[in-house]
Amino acid sequence: xxxxxxxxxxxxxxxxxxxxxxxxxxxxxxxxxxxxxxxxxxxxxxxxxxxxxxxxxxxxxxxxxxxxxxxxxxxxxxxxxxxxxxxxxxxxxxxxxxxxxxxxxxxxxxxxxxxxxxxxxxxxxxxxxxxxxxxxxxxxxxxxxxxxxxxxxxxxxxxxxxxxxxx
Length: 167
What we know:
By secondary structure, this protein is of the alpha/beta class.
């Protein structure tokens, strides 16, 4: 099962659209995970129309229309992998500990908000935390980014951070 993981797209405020490389990956993916901060419902509609399956949440920059359609937290099982998606996890200090306590029954937590790519594992339970960064608003990062991964028999595999050309 091929995953595309993105967040903090901020369309159309930070970009007119998603980068073509990301759209191509979305078209090829089995599941797209979006960790919030869409900004406008038109991107949600476009992504929902193109993605085979979309698992998404709203973020702090999303207004009432997006909040009415998207949860704050999404929980799904993908080929045996127990996944949660949320926008905010709080400060980076003690993030793993907080998230492991909040999501003890999950194998993977996808989050956004910071626009900073993140990949760590919370001990002792092994919760994997992934933040794809942002494909449209890199802030202080050298590149806009997004993630891809595979799920094989309930395990996360081949996690790859994709760097886009700086805008």
